[in-house]
Amino acid sequence: MSGGTRFILVGCGLMGKRHIRGLAEARRHGLCGARLVGVIDKVSDRASEAAELAERLLGERPAVFTSLEDAVEGVEFEAADVCTEPASHHLVAEPLLEAGVSCLVEKPLSITVRGCRRILDASIKGGAVLAVAENYRRDPVNRLAKAIIDGGELGGWIGALHIIAGGGDAVLLSPWRHKLSGGILIDLCCHYMDIFNYFFGAPERVSGFAALLRKVRYLREAGGNAVKKTPVEAEAEDFLDTTLHYRDNIVAKFVANLAVTGEGVWRRLVFFEGGSMEIPMERTGEPLRVSKPLDQDYLELMPHTAFLGQKPGEPYSVSQTAAEEIYDRETRALFPGILNGYKMDFWEADSKLIALELADFFRCVEEGGVPETGGREGMLSVAMVVAALESSYAGRSVRLEDVLELKVEGYQARINRDIGLISDK
Fold first, then answer.
1. Do 315 and 379 touch, CB atoms closer than 8 A?
2. How far is the C-alpha of 98 from the C-alpha of 87, rounded, in Å?
3. Strands (E), 176-281
4. Which of 1, 50, 245, 326 could form a disulfide with 39 if both were Cys (CB 3.0 to 4.6 A apart)?
C-alpha cells in the first residue's frame, strides 16, 4: 500500500468525504493502494474533519491545507481528486493537468461545455490522465442492463423513458446548486445522460424545455417544537423536458421535475421490439425487471388495458456463469455473489461504487490506459443536458455536435462569464 499513487483531495465537503470512504472500501478489497497525502478546503474545519476521517479509515493522516497553492508547496503528489463545486472545477483541474498531474474530477466535469473543453485540453497538453467520477453506470444494475441491450434477446431498442418528479420546495443538498452557476439540472441530470450514452451512444439532436418553478426554496432544521425554515432564492431551472433524437426516428425521453411536492415518481424503462426492461434507481439494490410478452398476453387484454402494456415485468434471471461474464472482477469483489440486485444500505452501496471509479482511475495512472469515463465522456454527459437547456433558450432543437463544438452557447453565455471562462472585453 505504501507504494501507491500519492494524491491530494481538493474539496472536503459531503462529496469529498464520500470519496475517502470509497478509497477505504477500495483498499479493503485490494483494488488500489493509493495514498491520500493531503486534503484541501477553503474552510479549515472541513479539511480537518476530512483528515480525521482519513486517519480513522486509512490509517494515515494527510496534511491539511486551505489552498491548492499551499498544497503544491507543502506535499509531493502525482494525482488529485477534485471534489469542489462544479463552477470551480476548471480553476482547480486545468493548472494541475497542464503540470502533468492526473486528475479525477467529480461530475459534472464543468457546468458548461466550454469549461469541459478547457479541462480536456489541459489534460492533453500536460499528458495527464483525466477521469470523471461517474459512479452511476458502475452500479451492477446498469452493468446488467447494458448486457441485456447488447445481447439482443429482446430485439433492438425502439425507445426509452426516464421520469423523475420530487424535490418539493426544499433546498436540494446545498444552496449553491440552485444558483445559475450551480445548475441543479446539470449537476443531477448529467448522471442520467451518461447512462443514456452508455446504453445507446450519443444522440444526433436534442429538444428541450426548461423552467424555474420554485423561485424560493427552504432550508429546514429542527428547532424545538417547530421546524425552522430559511428561504433561499433560486436561479437555476428545476424543470426539464428533454427528447434525445437518435437515428431511425428512435427517441429517448427524459423528464425531471424537481419542484413537485407530495407523492413523487422515479421510473426508467427501455422498450424493445420484443419487450421492455425496467431499471431501478442506483444504490437501491432492487432487481432489474424484464417483460417479454407472448401472443397469449395480447389476447387477454381488455379495452381499458389495451394501451397499458401486455405483461408486467419480472426480475430478470441471471445464472452464476452469466454473472461472471456480465460483472468484472472488481464488481464481483465488492458485491459478492451478485446476480440481479443486492442487499445493502445506500451508504454502503455508495462507497462501493466510488471505490470502483477510484480503482479505475488509479489503475490508469499507474499502469496506463484510458479511464472508462474520461474527459470526453464527462463532456458528453454535460453537453446532452446543456443541449436541452440551449434548445429551450433558442426555441428549437439543436445538434449535439454544435453544442460540443461551441457553436451554440446562448444559454451558457452568462454562466461562462460568471465563472470566468469568457469576458465582455
1. no
2. 19
3. 205-211, 216-223, 226-233, 239-245, 251-260, 265-272, 275-278
4. 50
CA-to-CA separations, 276 to 253, 269, 319, in angstroms, rounded: 15, 7, 20
Distance CA 237, CA 36 (A): 37
Per DSSP, the chain holds a count of helices (H) and strands (E) of 14, 17
Confidence grade of residue 110 (pLDDT, cut at 50, 70, 90): very high
Whether this prediction's pTM lies above 0.85 is answered by yes
**Dihedrals φ, ψ of 132, to 5°?**
-110, 130
Taking only the tens place, the pLDDT of each residue in 118-164 is 999 999 999 999 999 999 999 999 999 999 999 999 999 999 999 99
Q: Which of helix, strand or coil describes residue 162?
A: strand
Single-letter code of the amino acid located at 202: A
* Angstrom distances, CA of residue 176 to CA of 233, 235, 394: 10, 10, 26
Q: Which residue segments constitute the domains of the chain, with CATH numbers given?
A: 6-136+355-373 (3.40.50.720), 137-344 (3.30.360.10)
At 364, list the grid cell: 490508469
d(CA 380, CA 360): 19
What is the rounded distance in angstroms from the CA atom of residue 73 to the CA atom of residue 313? Answer: 58
Residue 386 and residue 193 in contact, taking contact as beta carbons nearer than 8 Å: no
Collapsing DSSP to helix, strand or coil, 125 comes out as helix
Q: What pLDDT digit, counting tens, does each position of 46-93 carry? A: 999 999 999 999 999 999 999 999 999 999 999 999 999 999 999 999
Q: Cis check for the bond before 280: say yes or no (omega within 30 of 0).
A: no
Residue 2 pLDDT > 80, yes or no? no
Bridge partners, residue 7, by sequence: 36, 79
pLDDT confidence of residue 398: 98
- Whether 131 contacts 158, CB under 8 Å: no
Residues 288, 254: Cα–Cα separation, whole Å: 19
Q: Which residues pair with 257 in a beta bridge?
A: 165, 239
Q: Name the residue among 330, 331, 367 with its Cα closest to residue 5.
A: 367
Determine the Cα–Cα distance for residues 122 and 361; give it in Å rounded to an integer. 17
C-alpha 414/C-alpha 417 separation (Å) is: 5
Dist CA 17 CA 123 (whole Å):
25
Per-residue pLDDT, averaged over 162-169, amounts to 97
Contact predicate 172/184, CB 8 Å: yes
- Cell numbers describing residue 92: 482547480
Instruction: Tell me the three cell numbers of residue 355.
Output: 471505490
